[in-house]
Design goal:
The protein is mainly α. The protein has a domain of 42 residues. It has four helices and no strands. Helix 2 packs antiparallel against helix 3 and helix 3 runs antiparallel to helix 4. The relative contact order is 0.11.
Length: 80
């Protein structure tokens, strides 16, 4: 009797440039969400920093960066 072969599962290596793990942990690429929601520069950065805050090791710093970009967006809306 010939033993049954198990099918190997290919898992791609993490790509630190185009798909870093701190942006893809949930199955959604952060930049795809930013594009789909048409957020633009400031709000896109807010989403970027919030989405990685718990996954890159600098939670407070990422949340402060998100706040800085949100403050810039609010300022741009109130200073016109």
């Amino acid at each position: 009797m010939i033993p049954e072969l198990k099918k190997a599962v290919w898992t791609p290596k993490p790509d630190a440039i185009s798909s870093p793990s701190h942006y893809t942990y949930s199955g959604f690429e952060t930049w795809d969400v930013i594009d789909a929601w048409e957020l633009g520069y400031n709000l896109g950065n807010v989403v970027k920093y919030i989405s990685r805050a718990n996954h890159k090791g600098k939670r407070l710093e990422d949340l402060q960066k998100a706040k800085a970009y949100l403050d810039r967006e609010i300022k741009s809306l109130t200073s016109s």
